Amino acid sequence: MDTQLYDTVIVGGGPAGLNGALYLGRSRRRVLLIDSGDARNMAAGVMHNVLTNDGATIADFRARSRAELAAYDVTFRDDEVTSAGCDGGRVVVTTKESGTFHARTLLYAAGVRSVLPAVPGLADLWGRAVFECPYCHAWEMRARSFAVYGGNVPSECLAATLTVWSEDITYLSDRRVLPRDERDRLVAAGVPVVADGISAFKPHSEGVEVIFEDGRSAAFGALFLHLDIEPRVDPLRPWLQAPDLESVQTDERGRTSLPRLYVAGDLGRNMQQAAMAAASGGLAGMAINADLIREDRPGSLPEPPPPRPAR
């Protein structure tokens, strides 16, 4: 049984959690990082837009990051957090296999889940020929033909953005009639629309084959789409008492309206890129260190701004 009182438990071992651990470790804080290994971008296999790590495999990035953190008082547990809450001024975190841990603060950086449309074959192509982020994947697919799937989540702005990487883009929609503003933006971008129902996606030598409900098919070099997301906050209930962490975040350094709970990465505000997530982890690490200093030495640092009301 681990009886240590950690300064911070970090949930999530992606760029946000790892960089938060680096800032806190270098601040001489005792840190425990718990990671389930179920990253949102694991299907893609690589990461982009991070200097010195552009194109690095996610597994290699994580391994090298952990090796660098070995110089500091940072402990790792490969486990799944089942619950987290606050009890008597201390954070209590319970895991599936490793037991219960106690800390002064919790940095929650577990990320979000991407929710794929329920179209047969789509999940099998995810991360290989089907993508969401143009800045992460369009360079590798440049000059190929692109399809943009505007299903439940309209994606006309994504289609317009992709014109930088390809001159051959087709917008696919299950909706027979598009709203006028959506159609007008596609016309302005020079993107034709195929508003026929889609029954399946299949692998193709070019990339992906789209099977329409009338039996026709078309092949494209890659398919892009916007996705719904689910915040991975189940272990925080009932402590959180909110649908997500973004709604209770009170400043740009990851503080929340719940004392001792901080957020970083995809669960925070506008941080759904690896480099931005890492930056948010560093900001949260600095906020945690400053708040612990205030707790240990009242009056030594100015108080942070008052929390914003929850939205």
Give the terminus-to-terminus CA distance: 39 Å
Number of strands: 17
Please describe the biggest sheet, giving its number of strands, its sense, and whether it closes into a barrel: 7 strands, mixed
* Helicity, as a percent range: 10-25%
> For the CA atoms, what is the radius of gyration?
22 Å
Q: How many domains would you count in the coordinates?
A: 2
Shape: elongated
- Provide the low-confidence segments as ranges: none
If classified by CATH, what would the architecture of the largest domain be?
A: 3-Layer(bba) Sandwich
CATH class bucket of the largest domain = Alpha Beta
Structural class: alpha/beta
| Average pLDDT | 92
| SS field, number of helical segments | 7
> So, the CATH homologous superfamily of the largest domain?
FAD/NAD(P)-binding domain
Quote the CATH topology of the largest domain. Answer: FAD/NAD(P)-binding domain
Share in β-strands: 25-35%
SSE order, one letter for each helix or strand: EHEHEEEEEHEHEHEHEEEEEEEH
InterPro entries: FAD/NAD-bd_sf, FAD/NAD-binding_dom, Ferredoxin-NADP_redctase_2
Catalytic activity: [thioredoxin]-dithiol + NADP(+) = [thioredoxin]-disulfide + NADPH + H(+)
Protein name: Thioredoxin reductase
GO molecular function: thioredoxin-disulfide reductase (NADPH) activity
